[in-house]
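Colleagues,

Please find the record for the two-part complex below.
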Amino acid sequence: MEGKRMKDNAQIEKGTTENENGSSTMRTVETLLRILPMALCMGALVIMLKDSQTNDFGSLHYSDIGAFRYLVHASGICAGYSLLSAVAAAIPKQSTMSRAWTFFILDQLLTYMILAAAAISAEVVYLAYKGDAAITWSQACGSFGGFCRRATAAIAITFIVTLCYAGLTLISSYRLFSKYDPPVAHNNRGVEIATFHG
Amino acid sequence: MEGKRMKDNAQIEKGTTENENGSSTMRTVETLLRILPMALCMGALVIMLKDSQTNDFGSLHYSDIGAFRYLVHASGICAGYSLLSAVAAAIPKQSTMSRAWTFFILDQLLTYMILAAAAISAEVVYLAYKGDAAITWSQACGSFGGFCRRATAAIAITFIVTLCYAGLTLISSYRLFSKYDPPVAHNNRGVEIATFHG
Protein backbone atom coordinates (compact mmCIF):
# COMPACT_ATOMS: atom_id res chain seq x y z
CA MET A 1 0.00 0.00 0.00
CA GLU A 2 1.46 3.30 -1.08
CA GLY A 3 1.13 6.72 0.46
CA LYS A 4 1.82 5.47 3.96
CA ARG A 5 2.93 8.83 5.21
CA MET A 6 0.27 10.19 7.53
CA LYS A 7 -1.22 13.61 7.15
CA ASP A 8 -0.46 14.45 10.77
CA ASN A 9 1.61 17.51 9.95
CA ALA A 10 -1.22 19.10 8.02
CA GLN A 11 -3.62 18.19 10.81
CA ILE A 12 -1.51 19.84 13.50
CA GLU A 13 -1.30 22.92 11.30
CA LYS A 14 -5.04 23.17 10.99
CA GLY A 15 -5.85 23.28 14.69
CA THR A 16 -7.83 20.17 15.58
CA THR A 17 -10.27 21.97 17.87
CA GLU A 18 -11.99 23.68 14.94
CA ASN A 19 -14.77 22.01 13.00
CA GLU A 20 -15.10 19.08 15.36
CA ASN A 21 -18.89 19.16 15.12
CA GLY A 22 -18.91 17.03 11.98
CA SER A 23 -16.56 14.57 13.58
CA SER A 24 -18.66 14.23 16.74
CA THR A 25 -21.79 13.69 14.61
CA MET A 26 -20.04 10.82 12.88
CA ARG A 27 -18.92 9.49 16.25
CA THR A 28 -22.54 9.55 17.45
CA VAL A 29 -23.75 7.73 14.31
CA GLU A 30 -20.98 5.19 14.71
CA THR A 31 -21.79 4.59 18.38
CA LEU A 32 -25.47 4.09 17.55
CA LEU A 33 -24.57 1.77 14.66
CA ARG A 34 -22.65 -0.31 17.20
CA ILE A 35 -25.30 -0.27 19.95
CA LEU A 36 -28.12 -1.24 17.55
CA PRO A 37 -26.47 -4.53 16.40
CA MET A 38 -25.72 -5.31 20.03
CA ALA A 39 -29.42 -5.10 20.91
CA LEU A 40 -30.41 -6.97 17.72
CA CYS A 41 -27.85 -9.74 18.32
CA MET A 42 -29.11 -10.18 21.87
CA GLY A 43 -32.65 -10.44 20.48
CA ALA A 44 -31.68 -13.01 17.84
CA LEU A 45 -29.70 -14.91 20.48
CA VAL A 46 -32.64 -15.12 22.92
CA ILE A 47 -35.14 -16.09 20.19
CA MET A 48 -32.80 -18.82 18.92
CA LEU A 49 -31.87 -20.14 22.39
CA LYS A 50 -35.57 -20.53 23.28
CA ASP A 51 -36.40 -22.11 19.92
CA SER A 52 -37.59 -25.64 20.53
CA GLN A 53 -40.75 -27.56 19.76
CA THR A 54 -42.07 -30.93 20.86
CA ASN A 55 -45.08 -32.64 19.28
CA ASP A 56 -46.29 -36.04 18.08
CA PHE A 57 -43.59 -36.12 15.38
CA GLY A 58 -40.82 -35.73 17.94
CA SER A 59 -38.75 -32.93 19.40
CA LEU A 60 -36.66 -30.27 17.73
CA HIS A 61 -34.26 -27.93 19.46
CA TYR A 62 -32.03 -25.25 17.92
CA SER A 63 -28.94 -27.17 19.02
CA ASP A 64 -29.94 -30.11 16.81
CA ILE A 65 -28.96 -28.03 13.78
CA GLY A 66 -25.31 -27.08 13.25
CA ALA A 67 -26.10 -23.85 11.38
CA PHE A 68 -28.26 -22.57 14.25
CA ARG A 69 -25.54 -23.38 16.80
CA TYR A 70 -23.14 -21.30 14.68
CA LEU A 71 -25.71 -18.49 14.50
CA VAL A 72 -25.98 -18.48 18.31
CA HIS A 73 -22.19 -18.32 18.72
CA ALA A 74 -21.82 -15.64 16.03
CA SER A 75 -24.62 -13.55 17.61
CA GLY A 76 -22.96 -13.83 21.02
CA ILE A 77 -19.56 -12.78 19.69
CA CYS A 78 -21.16 -9.98 17.68
CA ALA A 79 -23.09 -8.66 20.71
CA GLY A 80 -19.95 -8.67 22.84
CA TYR A 81 -17.82 -7.01 20.17
CA SER A 82 -20.53 -4.43 19.43
CA LEU A 83 -20.68 -3.45 23.11
CA LEU A 84 -16.91 -3.17 23.53
CA SER A 85 -16.44 -1.31 20.26
CA ALA A 86 -19.35 1.06 21.04
CA VAL A 87 -17.63 2.01 24.29
CA ALA A 88 -14.30 2.43 22.49
CA ALA A 89 -15.90 4.47 19.67
CA ALA A 90 -17.77 6.74 22.11
CA ILE A 91 -14.55 7.94 23.74
CA PRO A 92 -13.53 11.17 21.98
CA LYS A 93 -9.90 10.29 21.44
CA GLN A 94 -7.51 11.16 18.62
CA SER A 95 -7.66 8.19 16.29
CA THR A 96 -4.25 6.55 15.93
CA MET A 97 -3.15 4.39 13.01
CA SER A 98 -3.17 1.12 14.99
CA ARG A 99 -6.58 1.92 16.46
CA ALA A 100 -8.00 2.61 12.98
CA TRP A 101 -6.49 -0.63 11.59
CA THR A 102 -7.88 -2.64 14.54
CA PHE A 103 -11.40 -1.27 14.05
CA PHE A 104 -11.16 -1.79 10.29
CA ILE A 105 -10.00 -5.43 10.46
CA LEU A 106 -12.34 -6.46 13.28
CA ASP A 107 -15.34 -4.77 11.62
CA GLN A 108 -14.57 -6.58 8.35
CA LEU A 109 -14.19 -9.96 10.09
CA LEU A 110 -17.41 -9.50 12.09
CA THR A 111 -19.29 -8.52 8.92
CA TYR A 112 -18.14 -11.67 7.14
CA MET A 113 -18.86 -13.83 10.21
CA ILE A 114 -22.38 -12.53 10.77
CA LEU A 115 -23.23 -12.59 7.05
CA ALA A 116 -22.10 -16.22 6.81
CA ALA A 117 -24.16 -17.10 9.92
CA ALA A 118 -27.28 -15.46 8.49
CA ALA A 119 -26.76 -17.03 5.06
CA ILE A 120 -26.25 -20.64 6.17
CA SER A 121 -29.12 -20.47 8.68
CA ALA A 122 -31.38 -19.03 5.97
CA GLU A 123 -30.37 -21.92 3.69
CA VAL A 124 -31.24 -24.48 6.38
CA VAL A 125 -34.64 -22.87 7.05
CA TYR A 126 -35.25 -22.74 3.28
CA LEU A 127 -34.48 -26.47 3.06
CA ALA A 128 -36.66 -27.13 6.11
CA TYR A 129 -39.60 -25.32 4.44
CA LYS A 130 -39.14 -26.68 0.92
CA GLY A 131 -37.32 -29.96 1.45
CA ASP A 132 -35.27 -31.47 -1.37
CA ALA A 133 -36.75 -34.44 -3.21
CA ALA A 134 -33.52 -35.35 -5.06
CA ILE A 135 -31.62 -36.01 -1.83
CA THR A 136 -34.75 -37.17 0.02
CA TRP A 137 -34.72 -34.40 2.61
CA SER A 138 -38.21 -33.91 4.02
CA GLN A 139 -40.04 -30.64 4.75
CA ALA A 140 -39.47 -30.42 8.48
CA CYS A 141 -41.47 -27.18 8.79
CA GLY A 142 -44.71 -29.01 7.93
CA SER A 143 -44.45 -30.68 11.36
CA PHE A 144 -42.50 -27.98 13.22
CA GLY A 145 -44.10 -24.74 12.01
CA GLY A 146 -43.51 -22.74 15.21
CA PHE A 147 -39.86 -23.77 15.35
CA CYS A 148 -39.30 -22.62 11.76
CA ARG A 149 -41.10 -19.29 12.28
CA ARG A 150 -38.99 -18.41 15.33
CA ALA A 151 -35.80 -19.42 13.49
CA THR A 152 -36.85 -17.23 10.54
CA ALA A 153 -37.35 -14.27 12.89
CA ALA A 154 -33.88 -14.74 14.39
CA ILE A 155 -32.36 -14.96 10.90
CA ALA A 156 -34.18 -11.82 9.70
CA ILE A 157 -32.76 -9.93 12.69
CA THR A 158 -29.29 -11.27 11.86
CA PHE A 159 -29.60 -9.90 8.32
CA ILE A 160 -30.40 -6.46 9.76
CA VAL A 161 -27.25 -6.80 11.90
CA THR A 162 -25.32 -7.57 8.69
CA LEU A 163 -26.60 -4.32 7.16
CA CYS A 164 -25.50 -2.37 10.26
CA TYR A 165 -22.06 -3.93 10.00
CA ALA A 166 -21.83 -3.13 6.29
CA GLY A 167 -22.41 0.51 7.31
CA LEU A 168 -19.81 0.24 10.06
CA THR A 169 -17.16 -1.07 7.67
CA LEU A 170 -17.85 2.03 5.54
CA ILE A 171 -17.12 4.28 8.55
CA SER A 172 -14.08 2.35 9.72
CA SER A 173 -12.69 2.21 6.14
CA TYR A 174 -13.13 5.98 5.92
CA ARG A 175 -11.47 6.54 9.31
CA LEU A 176 -8.51 4.36 8.31
CA PHE A 177 -7.83 5.26 4.69
CA SER A 178 -8.53 8.98 4.97
CA LYS A 179 -5.24 9.05 6.94
CA TYR A 180 -3.39 7.92 3.82
CA ASP A 181 -2.56 9.95 0.75
CA PRO A 182 -4.06 9.03 -2.63
CA PRO A 183 -2.03 6.54 -4.71
CA VAL A 184 -0.69 8.73 -7.53
CA ALA A 185 0.66 11.67 -5.54
CA HIS A 186 2.22 10.13 -2.49
CA ASN A 187 5.41 12.17 -2.20
CA ASN A 188 3.70 14.56 0.21
CA ARG A 189 5.67 17.56 -0.94
CA GLY A 190 2.65 19.84 -0.73
CA VAL A 191 2.10 18.98 2.92
CA GLU A 192 5.77 19.57 3.75
CA ILE A 193 5.60 23.01 2.17
CA ALA A 194 2.58 23.69 4.36
CA THR A 195 4.67 22.74 7.40
CA PHE A 196 7.47 25.09 6.45
CA HIS A 197 5.41 28.07 5.37
CA GLY A 198 2.32 27.73 7.60
CA MET B 1 -19.55 11.62 5.89
CA GLU B 2 -17.28 14.54 6.69
CA GLY B 3 -14.20 15.77 4.91
CA LYS B 4 -15.74 15.62 1.47
CA ARG B 5 -13.41 18.14 -0.02
CA MET B 6 -11.04 16.34 -2.36
CA LYS B 7 -7.30 16.76 -2.16
CA ASP B 8 -7.10 17.60 -5.84
CA ASN B 9 -5.39 20.97 -5.32
CA ALA B 10 -2.54 19.39 -3.41
CA GLN B 11 -2.30 16.66 -6.05
CA ILE B 12 -2.05 19.08 -8.95
CA GLU B 13 0.64 21.00 -7.03
CA LYS B 14 2.74 17.94 -6.53
CA GLY B 15 3.02 16.97 -10.17
CA THR B 16 1.33 13.64 -10.77
CA THR B 17 4.00 12.29 -13.11
CA GLU B 18 6.46 11.84 -10.24
CA ASN B 19 6.51 8.72 -8.10
CA GLU B 20 3.99 6.87 -10.17
CA ASN B 21 5.93 3.62 -9.80
CA GLY B 22 4.23 2.75 -6.50
CA SER B 23 0.86 3.51 -8.03
CA SER B 24 1.50 1.31 -11.06
CA THR B 25 2.67 -1.54 -8.79
CA MET B 26 -0.62 -1.34 -6.95
CA ARG B 27 -2.46 -1.25 -10.27
CA THR B 28 -0.64 -4.43 -11.32
CA VAL B 29 -1.48 -6.16 -8.02
CA GLU B 30 -5.09 -5.05 -8.36
CA THR B 31 -5.34 -6.29 -11.96
CA LEU B 32 -3.89 -9.68 -10.94
CA LEU B 33 -6.26 -9.85 -7.94
CA ARG B 34 -9.10 -9.39 -10.43
CA ILE B 35 -7.85 -11.85 -13.06
CA LEU B 36 -7.22 -14.60 -10.49
CA PRO B 37 -10.84 -14.72 -9.21
CA MET B 38 -12.04 -14.70 -12.82
CA ALA B 39 -10.05 -17.87 -13.55
CA LEU B 40 -11.05 -19.44 -10.23
CA CYS B 41 -14.73 -18.62 -10.74
CA MET B 42 -14.62 -20.16 -14.20
CA GLY B 43 -13.06 -23.29 -12.65
CA ALA B 44 -15.68 -23.52 -9.90
CA LEU B 45 -18.41 -22.93 -12.49
CA VAL B 46 -17.20 -25.73 -14.78
CA ILE B 47 -16.74 -28.19 -11.91
CA MET B 48 -20.21 -27.44 -10.57
CA LEU B 49 -21.94 -27.52 -13.98
CA LYS B 50 -20.47 -30.95 -14.70
CA ASP B 51 -21.31 -32.23 -11.23
CA SER B 52 -23.82 -35.06 -11.57
CA GLN B 53 -23.88 -38.70 -10.56
CA THR B 54 -26.19 -41.58 -11.38
CA ASN B 55 -26.10 -44.91 -9.58
CA ASP B 56 -28.40 -47.56 -8.11
CA PHE B 57 -29.72 -45.09 -5.53
CA GLY B 58 -30.86 -42.66 -8.21
CA SER B 59 -29.52 -39.61 -9.94
CA LEU B 60 -28.19 -36.37 -8.50
CA HIS B 61 -27.42 -33.22 -10.48
CA TYR B 62 -26.14 -29.87 -9.19
CA SER B 63 -29.38 -28.19 -10.28
CA ASP B 64 -31.35 -30.38 -7.85
CA ILE B 65 -29.91 -28.30 -5.00
CA GLY B 66 -30.87 -24.64 -4.67
CA ALA B 67 -27.61 -23.61 -2.98
CA PHE B 68 -25.53 -25.04 -5.85
CA ARG B 69 -27.69 -23.25 -8.43
CA TYR B 70 -26.99 -20.01 -6.52
CA LEU B 71 -23.27 -20.85 -6.46
CA VAL B 72 -23.26 -21.30 -10.23
CA HIS B 73 -25.02 -17.97 -10.79
CA ALA B 74 -22.78 -16.16 -8.30
CA SER B 75 -19.64 -17.65 -9.90
CA GLY B 76 -20.83 -16.59 -13.34
CA ILE B 77 -21.56 -13.02 -12.22
CA CYS B 78 -18.26 -12.90 -10.34
CA ALA B 79 -16.27 -14.12 -13.38
CA GLY B 80 -17.92 -11.52 -15.61
CA TYR B 81 -17.43 -8.68 -13.14
CA SER B 82 -13.81 -9.72 -12.48
CA LEU B 83 -13.02 -9.61 -16.20
CA LEU B 84 -14.67 -6.23 -16.78
CA SER B 85 -13.17 -4.69 -13.66
CA ALA B 86 -9.69 -6.09 -14.47
CA VAL B 87 -9.85 -4.35 -17.84
CA ALA B 88 -11.07 -1.13 -16.21
CA ALA B 89 -8.40 -1.31 -13.48
CA ALA B 90 -5.60 -1.99 -15.96
CA ILE B 91 -6.21 1.29 -17.82
CA PRO B 92 -3.86 3.90 -16.32
CA LYS B 93 -6.40 6.64 -15.85
CA GLN B 94 -6.72 9.32 -13.18
CA SER B 95 -9.15 7.88 -10.64
CA THR B 96 -12.24 10.07 -10.29
CA MET B 97 -14.55 10.13 -7.29
CA SER B 98 -17.46 8.38 -9.04
CA ARG B 99 -15.12 5.71 -10.46
CA ALA B 100 -13.71 5.05 -6.97
CA TRP B 101 -17.19 4.84 -5.43
CA THR B 102 -18.37 2.46 -8.19
CA PHE B 103 -15.42 0.12 -7.66
CA PHE B 104 -15.84 0.31 -3.88
CA ILE B 105 -19.57 -0.48 -3.85
CA LEU B 106 -19.41 -3.23 -6.51
CA ASP B 107 -16.39 -4.88 -4.86
CA GLN B 108 -18.22 -4.88 -1.50
CA LEU B 109 -21.40 -6.35 -3.03
CA LEU B 110 -19.48 -9.03 -4.94
CA THR B 111 -17.59 -9.97 -1.77
CA TYR B 112 -20.82 -10.42 0.17
CA MET B 113 -22.45 -12.31 -2.71
CA ILE B 114 -19.60 -14.76 -3.24
CA LEU B 115 -19.08 -15.28 0.52
CA ALA B 116 -22.78 -16.09 0.94
CA ALA B 117 -22.65 -18.50 -2.03
CA ALA B 118 -19.62 -20.30 -0.59
CA ALA B 119 -21.10 -20.42 2.93
CA ILE B 120 -24.53 -21.82 2.02
CA SER B 121 -23.06 -24.38 -0.39
CA ALA B 122 -20.61 -25.45 2.31
CA GLU B 123 -23.52 -25.87 4.73
CA VAL B 124 -25.41 -28.05 2.23
CA VAL B 125 -22.36 -30.24 1.61
CA TYR B 126 -21.80 -30.47 5.37
CA LEU B 127 -25.41 -31.63 5.80
CA ALA B 128 -25.03 -34.05 2.88
CA TYR B 129 -21.94 -35.58 4.53
CA LYS B 130 -23.22 -35.64 8.11
CA GLY B 131 -26.99 -35.71 7.72
CA ASP B 132 -29.21 -34.50 10.55
CA ALA B 133 -30.99 -37.11 12.64
CA ALA B 134 -33.29 -34.63 14.42
CA ILE B 135 -34.94 -33.52 11.19
CA THR B 136 -34.47 -36.94 9.52
CA TRP B 137 -32.16 -35.71 6.75
CA SER B 138 -30.07 -38.59 5.46
CA GLN B 139 -26.37 -38.63 4.58
CA ALA B 140 -26.58 -38.27 0.82
CA CYS B 141 -22.79 -38.42 0.39
CA GLY B 142 -22.75 -42.08 1.47
CA SER B 143 -24.43 -42.90 -1.85
CA PHE B 144 -23.14 -39.99 -3.93
CA GLY B 145 -19.48 -39.69 -2.89
CA GLY B 146 -18.17 -38.41 -6.22
CA PHE B 147 -20.87 -35.77 -6.44
CA CYS B 148 -20.02 -34.47 -2.96
CA ARG B 149 -16.26 -34.43 -3.62
CA ARG B 150 -16.65 -32.35 -6.79
CA ALA B 151 -19.04 -29.98 -5.01
CA THR B 152 -16.51 -29.62 -2.16
CA ALA B 153 -13.76 -28.75 -4.68
CA ALA B 154 -15.95 -26.06 -6.27
CA ILE B 155 -16.76 -24.62 -2.82
CA ALA B 156 -13.09 -24.58 -1.76
CA ILE B 157 -12.27 -22.61 -4.93
CA THR B 158 -15.12 -20.22 -4.15
CA PHE B 159 -13.65 -19.57 -0.68
CA ILE B 160 -10.31 -18.64 -2.31
CA VAL B 161 -12.26 -16.23 -4.55
CA THR B 162 -13.76 -14.73 -1.38
CA LEU B 163 -10.25 -14.13 0.00
CA CYS B 164 -9.23 -12.41 -3.26
CA TYR B 165 -12.27 -10.19 -3.04
CA ALA B 166 -11.55 -9.34 0.60
CA GLY B 167 -8.15 -8.11 -0.62
CA LEU B 168 -9.78 -6.18 -3.45
CA THR B 169 -12.15 -4.37 -1.07
CA LEU B 170 -9.05 -3.29 0.86
CA ILE B 171 -7.57 -1.75 -2.30
CA SER B 172 -10.82 -0.15 -3.46
CA SER B 173 -11.47 1.24 0.07
CA TYR B 174 -7.98 2.73 0.05
CA ARG B 175 -8.45 4.23 -3.41
CA LEU B 176 -11.76 5.78 -2.40
CA PHE B 177 -11.19 7.04 1.13
CA SER B 178 -7.63 8.27 0.65
CA LYS B 179 -9.29 11.01 -1.44
CA TYR B 180 -11.07 12.28 1.67
CA ASP B 181 -9.59 14.19 4.57
CA PRO B 182 -9.54 12.64 8.05
CA PRO B 183 -12.62 13.33 10.21
CA VAL B 184 -11.29 15.76 12.85
CA ALA B 185 -9.38 18.19 10.65
CA HIS B 186 -11.51 18.59 7.58
CA ASN B 187 -11.28 22.35 6.96
CA ASN B 188 -8.37 21.82 4.55
CA ARG B 189 -6.59 25.01 5.56
CA GLY B 190 -3.17 23.34 5.49
CA VAL B 191 -3.69 22.21 1.91
CA GLU B 192 -4.77 25.69 0.85
CA ILE B 193 -1.58 27.15 2.33
CA ALA B 194 0.31 24.67 0.18
CA THR B 195 -1.54 26.02 -2.85
CA PHE B 196 -0.61 29.58 -2.09
CA HIS B 197 3.03 29.05 -1.08
CA GLY B 198 3.96 26.04 -3.23
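Chain B touches chain A through 75 residues (CB under 8 Å).

Comments are welcome before we finalize the supplementary table.
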